[in-house]
């Protein structure tokens, strides 16, 4: 069977104390390459936004999958990551013939052949693109949530456990956007929720 459409898949947001885990799947035209598209962690926020636009213009298909904090608490972060990846694949406008997954684990989806690639976001451009789409999408969501909950500084820390974020949890408690299972040591505080 010839492979026409390969999707690169990556996630972002496994470690934060608040916000969703977001995955993206990206299919590029065969042979497409751009020097700005690399592992999202190696790009500044400004460069990520530029790369995001380039990917939007050039990808044949982009799918995004989001799993929120309540579900992360219910099923655990690994399972939530798999679900967000499957949602991203399902949200592609084209059904891929092959999946290239960043990391070392994936349960498979819809019988599509797949390969897990450790550090794939720095080795395969479609996975790099997925890392950028996922990161920019999640950062935009955390900035949006920060308008409602400004004291947690999610617009700056993206929900990660920075000193300021932890101080805010200790003084104000948890919100509906916090992962309770990640914040057990703060649960004695007065939770908003």
Account of the protein in words:
The protein contains 6 helices and 5 strands, in the order E-E-H-E-H-H-E-E-H-H-H. The chain is of the alpha/beta class. The chain has one domain (6-186): 2-Layer Sandwich (Nucleotidyltransferase, domain 5). It has a 5-stranded mixed beta sheet.
What's the CATH first level? Answer: Alpha Beta
| Largest sheet strand order | 3-2-1-4-5
Q: Give the termini distance in whole angstroms.
A: 52 Å
User: What name goes with the CATH superfamily?
Assistant: Ribonuclease H-like superfamily/Ribonuclease H
Q: In angstroms, what is the radius of gyration?
A: 17 Å
Largest sheet: 5 strands, mixed
Principal-axes shape call: globular
Secondary structure tally, helices: 6
Poorly predicted tracts of residues: 189-193
CATH-level-2 architecture: 2-Layer Sandwich
Topology as a string of helices (H) and strands (E): EEHEHHEEHHH
- Assembly status: single chain
* Strand portion: 15-25%
CATH topology: Nucleotidyltransferase, domain 5
Helix/strand-derived class? alpha/beta
Q: Could you tell me the number of beta strands?
A: 5
Helix share of residues? 25-40%
Average pLDDT reading: 94
How many domains comprise the coordinates? 1
List the topology elements.
Blueprint: E1 6-12, E2 21-27, H1 45-58, E3 61-67, H2 69-75, H3 77-90, E4 98-102, E5 114-117, H4 125-148, H5 154-157, H6 163-172
Helix pairs in contact: 1-4, 2-3
């Amino acid at each position: 069977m010839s492979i026409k459409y390969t999707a690169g898949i990556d996630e972002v947001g496994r470690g934060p104390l608040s916000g969703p885990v977001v995955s993206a799947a990206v299919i590029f035209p065969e042979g497409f390459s751009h020097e700005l598209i690399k592992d999202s962690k190696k790009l500044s926020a400004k460069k990520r936004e530029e790369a995001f636009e380039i990917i939007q213009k050039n990808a044949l298909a982009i799918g995004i999958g989001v799993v929120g904090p309540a579900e992360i608490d219910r099923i655990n972060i690994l399972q939530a990551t798999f679900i967000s990846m499957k949602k991203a694949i399902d949200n592609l406008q084209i059904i891929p013939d092959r999946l290239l997954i960043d990391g070392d684990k994936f349960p498979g989806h819809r019988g599509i052949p797949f390969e897990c690639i450790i550090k794939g976001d720095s080795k395969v451009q479609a996975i790099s693109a997925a890392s950028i789409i996922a990161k920019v999408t999640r950062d935009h969501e955390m900035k949006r949530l920060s308008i409602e909950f400004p004291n947690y500084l999610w617009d700056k820390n993206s929900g990660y456990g920075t000193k300021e974020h932890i101080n805010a949890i200790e003084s104000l408690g948890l919100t509906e956007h916090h992962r309770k299972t990640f914040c057990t040591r703060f649960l004695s505080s007065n939770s908003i929720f």
